[in-house]
Amino acid sequence: MGIPICGACHRPVEERVVTALGKHWHVEHFVCYVCEKPFLGHRHYERKGLAYCEQHYHKLYGNVCYKCGEACGGEVFQALQKSWCIKCFACSLCDKKMDHR
Predict the structure, then answer these.
(1) CA dist 13 to 1, 17, 27, 34, 90, Å?
(2) For residue 77, which of 45, 58, 71, 89 is within the disulfide window of CB 3.0 to 4.6 Å?
(3) What is residue 93's three-state secondary structure?
């Protein structure tokens, strides 16, 4: 298999490697498409082959579910400064679905 090649700089990745979007990346080269800040272990969101930080994905494509990471379609439940799909909003201890009304 050999040493992976970075999808950004096209040089070998000999230390920590990030695998995303079907490519390998140096940690510092896997960045948000909009702000170009590295994810550095933070969650990223993919759309049409591009990676976005949560802030820019939300700004461009709408609410992102805190649990499943998908764009929320239809109704959205918002609490604790986060958004959830109605199907994902549940108790964190027992996983019982909560009524959003």
Answers:
(1) 13, 6, 9, 24, 40
(2) 89
(3) coil
Task: Dump pLDDT digits (tens) for 15-55.
Answer: 999 999 999 999 999 999 999 999 998 889 898 999 999 88
Q: Do residues 56 and 73 both lie within one domain?
A: no
Give the number of other CB atoms < 10 A from CB of residue 29.
15
CA gyration radius for the chain?
17
List the domain range (segments joined by +) for residue 52: 17-61
- Cβ atoms of 27 and 45 closer than 8 Å: no
pLDDT above 70 covers a percentage of the chain that reads 96
Beta bridge partners of 77: 84
Q: Is residue 38 part of a domain?
A: yes
Q: In which residue are the tokens 């896997």 written?
A: 30
73 located within any domain: yes
